[in-house]
Design brief:
Layout (H helix, E strand, L loop, with lengths): L1 H4 L3 H13 L8 H10 L5
Helix pairs in contact: 2-3
Length: 44
């Protein structure tokens, strides 16, 4: 996931957890927001 969306392993872990738990992701990081949109994760 980190390679696919060009994220740090830390950010990729948050995205993976949000996707697995089907929870919205809250972040101010532009790269992580973009990755969440591409992955289909809802944002807060």
């Amino acid at each position: 996931m980190a390679r696919r969306y060009r994220l740090s392993s830390y950010d990729a872990s948050y995205l993976e957890l949000a996707l697995r738990r089907d929870l919205p992701l809250a972040t101010l990081d532009a790269g992580l927001r973009q990755a969440a949109r591409q992955a289909g994760s809802p944002l807060v």
